[in-house]
Amino acid sequence: MIAPTTRAVVLFAAGVPLAGFVALARAELWPAWAVYFAATAALFAADVFLLLPRKKLVLARVAPKQIALGDEARLRLDLTTRGHTRAVTVDVRVELGSLAAAAHDARVVVGGGRAAVVEVPLRPLRRGLLKIAACFFRYAGPLGLASRVERRALDEEIPVVPNLEAARLEAARFFEQRTLASGLKTQSYVGEGSEFDALREFVPGLDSRALDWKSSAKHHKLLVREFRAERNHQVVIAVDTGRLMSEPIAGKPRLDHAIHAGLLLSTIGLKAGDRVGWFAFDRAVRAYLPPARGMASLALMRATTARLEYQTAETNFTLGLVELLTRLRRRTLVVLLTDFVDTVSAELLVRSVGEVAKKHLVCFVALRDPLLSELADGELRDEDALHRAVIARDLLRERESVLTALLRLGVHVVDASVNDAPAKLVNRYLDIRRKELV
Question: CATH for 54-161, among 3.50.50.60, 2.30.30.60, 2.40.30.70, 2.60.40.10?
Answer without folding.
Answer: 2.60.40.10
